[in-house]
Amino acid sequence: MAKKVTVEEESTQQEPKPDVPVETQDPPRREVTQDPPRREVAEREEERPGFSVPRDMVLIPSLGKLYPPSHPLHNQENIEVRHLTAADEDILTSRALLRSGKALDHLLQSCIMDKSISVGDLISGDKNSIMTFLRISGYGPEYDVKIDCPSCEEEVQHTFDLSQLSVRTLDLTPEDQNNPVFTLELPSGVVVDFKFLNSAEEAEIAEILETTKRKTNSPLERNITTKYSRQILAVNGDTNQATISSFIKSMSVRDSRAFRKFLIDNEPDVIMKQDFICPMCSHKEEVDIPIGVGFFWPE
Question: Which residues of 285-294 are buried (b: 16+ CB within 10 A; e: fewer)?
Answer without folding.
Answer: eebebeeeee
